[in-house]
Design brief:
779 residues, 5-stranded mixed beta sheet, 4 helices, 44 strands, globular
């Protein structure tokens, strides 16, 4: 992958042979979209999370992809994740939760997910602020206002982006009244009970500007107990003068996401919409306010500062198969692995629903409340150095947070057909297995960074950068248990690289970078095989973990050619390898449905990315291919859980070279967009990828998830200058495929729709064919 323009059919060089002029008279079709980022001009990208004051991306020694706001609205309402999935090589989405607005995003085998228990290997910034949440470095995609996005930049590993930039960073810049003027309102809806409204308005008032965007979305979903409600508001108030600019931002978001998760394959064969156990609900409430400004100290030096505060409240309800079932010794009690089940005060729990294990289920409930705050500042200088163009950035940052976490588990009943927990249930208090938790966490992350890009010659540019990270994580057990502990980490991460303009149509690049991530509070509190936590992350006291360090080298070619006037061919080919020391994985425990975090030694992500894009006045077509190898380089042993391939002792032995679950080795993306008339645009995209190993099969002993090929169609029709109709058909061929696979305790739950089911393979099915349409009004 390389610096890639947003895939719009922007007007190209107007001059050319008379033959082209004659063709233009025959086909008087306007451009597909307004001009967007293009290699024929200067692609400017920020070398740090701060917006603005960027550098020419041609001099970047790593792969960079830029998508603008037009790329987010092709064929429908604005959708950042859809744009990344369809238009960027190496990006894939899975859906462990079964909710379409709560996916895990993979890039180069690294993950950014809203779910606890995942190794977060990508740094995400929103409006210049770190968006990885402090408690688990998670990324809540549902809280990002797609309608307000000005542009997104996805790039390879760069230490300047701080913690979690192991595999890369996603930098999302938001609109302001200076960058977007006018009004726009969308109303759309369609399959699965979806209704969505988006509105945005921007205006300047002399030296001041205002921008406002709001979204309301509801979708019933196509699976049992699947639904989504999302509301967000974003506002920016700005002022700028001859030497200064100041912005006040406000973001509010609320979501209620019900995801049925994965279901056993035998249950899906009987009913593709069926869920396994319920409820599975995540509710988020988010608010953030920030002040950002910049001041020109002189003609070549600018100071930028941003300060913020935010609040996130997350509630999780997770219904599961029970670990506590009727004892077999005739005592009339419930038993867990270690003996009789206990509740608060140590009292045993009677088998209050009878002797059948199918009468019981477990509900895990957790609440996380985080107050975050931070400050960052940087100086940018563009003075020439030794008579050569030079771009220097130096800065520092602080991100702090205070988090309160509570968690409870209940044993209760279960509905016979839909398998939903019946309460109120009895609180489980089983020391060493599952105890109520009240945890206080304080995070403090400090960073000092710098980056310098120098044109050594008219063709050769060199970049040197680095960042020193310090992290302090303090845990306080508010129940008086053994969770308390103080942890500190620090590291300097360097990077070096160069680009060489071989010809006007070809640039070579290469670089080396290091990056780190520190164990999260969630990981530090669940790091012992003897005292594992549930998937809902109820914690016990555990040993410390080592920080993860990535060493990344990448190189490639990128360029643009104009075979004839008003036609452009963009191309890229890149190779990368990331070797990680002391990688952290969430591995199975001997306790059913539970796991723990541990350092598993060395791991590796390496691969190839290739892109080709063709643009004319009427046509836009692209093909992206990626090959990704995510492998363990150190061996270890873990409990096999529900994996039937486990050995006689119930263990899995992971050997060097075994592949990571969930990462497809090969992926291809195709797209075409055609301006059929002056008013009508037709488009199609397709994604194909081979199957990945199931989560829980780190030893690669079971068959992989089936591969798939899915086609989406889109169209828009411009009724008038300010009125547009748009439509989209997703999964147009109605392919039946799956985006996530794992193993579930199928035999422990009575499946009325599939009596006697015992196959533990469990998939998250993708949605069938669905049509959506809407109207867009500009004023």
């Amino acid at each position: 992958m390389t610096i890639k323009p947003a895939k719009s059919g922007a007007r190209r060089r107007p001059s050319g042979p008379r033959l082209w002029s004659l063709l233009a008279l025959v086909f008087p079709i306007p451009a597909l979209a307004q001009p967007s980022t293009s290699l024929s001009g200067v692609v400017v990208t920020a070398p740090t999370p701060f917006p603005g004051l960027g550098v020419d991306a041609q001099t970047s020694p790593i792969a960079i992809t830029v998508l603008n706001s037009d790329d987010l609205v092709r064929g429908g309402a604005p959708d950042a994740l859809r744009a990344l999935q369809e238009q960027v090589a190496g990006v894939s989405l899975d859906s462990a939760s079964g909710n379409p607005f709560q996916p895990s995003l993979f890039y180069r085998g690294f993950e950014a997910s809203p779910l606890q228990g995942t190794a977060q290997g990508l740094a995400v910034y929103l409006g210049g602020l770190r968006f990885n949440q402090p408690f688990g470095d998670t990324v809540n995609w549902d809280l990002i206002p797609s309608a307000a996005i000005d542009r997104m930049t996805l790039e390879g590993s760069n230490p300047v982006f701080g913690l979690n930039a192991l595999g890369g960073a996603l930098n999302v810049q938001l609109k302001s009244g200076f960058t977007w003027q006018g009004g726009e309102a969308d109303l759309s809806g369609g399959a699965f009970g979806r209704v969505q409204g988006d509105v945005q308005y921007g205006r300047t008032f002399g030296d001041a500007a205002v921008y406002l965007a709001a979204t309301a979305l509801h979708q019933d979903g196509w699976r049992d107990l699947q639904s989504s409600d999302i509301h967000s508001v974003y506002g920016d108030l700005g002022w700028r003068g001859a030497k200064a600019e100041l912005h006040l931002n406000l973001r509010l978001a609320q979501s209620d996401l019900n995801g049925p998760g994965s279901s056993p394959v035998e249950l899906l064969a009987a009913d593709p919409a069926a869920q396994f156990t319920a409820p599975n609900v995540i509710k988020n409430a988010y608010a953030a306010v920030s002040v950002a400004g910049r001041y020109a100290l002189d003609s070549a030096t600018t100071l930028q500062v941003v300060a913020y505060g935010d609040y996130l409240r997350q509630n999780v309800l997770n219904g599961n198969a029970p670990n506590d079932t009727p004892c077999t010794d005739g005592s009339g009690l419930l038993c867990a692995n270690a003996g009789p089940s206990t509740t608060l005060g140590g009292a045993t729990i009677p088998a209050f629903l009878g002797a059948s294990p199918f009468a019981y289920s477990e509900l895990d409930e957790q609440t996380t409340q985080t107050v975050g705050y931070g400050l960052a500042a940087q100086v940018v200088n563009t003075d020439k150095l030794l008579g050569r163009n030079n771009h220097l950035v130096a800065g520092l940052s602080f991100d702090g947070a205070d988090t309160g976490f509570t968690g409870l588990s209940y044993i209760g009943g279960i509905t016979p057909t839909s398998r939903v927990f019946i309460g109120p249930g009895v609180v489980l208090d089983e020391p060493g297995q599952n105890s109520p938790v009240r945890l206080g966490v304080s995070n403090a992350y400090y960073g000092v960074f710098g980056s310098d890009s120098l044109d050594l010659t008219s063709r050769l540019s060199a970049t040197l950068s680095g960042r020193f990270n310090t992290a302090e994580i303090d845990l306080k057990d508010r129940n008086g248990g053994d969770l308390s502990g103080d942890h500190a980490y620090s590291r300097f991460n360097p990077a070096i690289g160069a680009t060489y303009r071989v010809a006007p149509w070809l640039t070579a690049y290469g670089g080396y970078a290091e990056a780190n991530r520190v164990p999260t509070p969630a990981e530090l509190s669940c790091a012992s095989p003897a005292d594992a936590c549930s998937l809902a992350n109820f914690f016990v006291g555990d040993p410390a973990l080592k920080q993860v360090v990535a060493h990344t080298a990448e190189a490639g070619l990128r360029g643009e050619a104009a075979p004839w006037p008003r036609a452009t061919l963009d191309y890229s080919l890149g190779l990368y390898r990331s070797d990680l020391d002391d990688d952290i994985a969430f591995v199975n425990s001997v306790t059913l449905g539970r796991a723990y975090f541990t350092n598993v030694g060395r791991t590796r992500r390496q691969g190839l990315e290739a892109s080709l894009q063709w643009r004319t006045v009427r046509w836009l077509a692209w093909v992206d291919y990626s090959h990704t190898e995510a492998t363990y380089q150190s061996g270890f042993v873990e409990a096999g859980g529900e994996n039937p391939a486990a050995d006689a002792n119930g263990n899995l032995t992971i050997r060097p070279g075994d592949r990571y679950p969930g990462v497809p080795a090969n992926q291809v993306k195709l797209g075409v967009r055609f301006q059929a008339t002056a008013r009508l645009i037709l488009g199609a995209t397709a994604i194909g990828q081979d199957g990945a190993y199931l989560f829980g099969d780190e030893a690669n002993l079971s068959p992989r998830l089936p591969g798939y090929f899915v086609v989406n169609l889109n169209a828009s029709y411009q009724l008038t200058r300010g009125l547009q109709l748009f439509a989209r058909v997703e999964n147009a061929a109605d392919a039946r495929y799956y985006t996530y696979g794992t193993f579930s305790p199928t035999a422990t739950v009575n499946l009325v729709q599939a009596p006697g089911a015992a196959n533990p393979r469990s998939y998250s099915p993708a949605a069938p064919v669905g049509g959506f349409g809407g109207v867009r009004v500009r004023f």
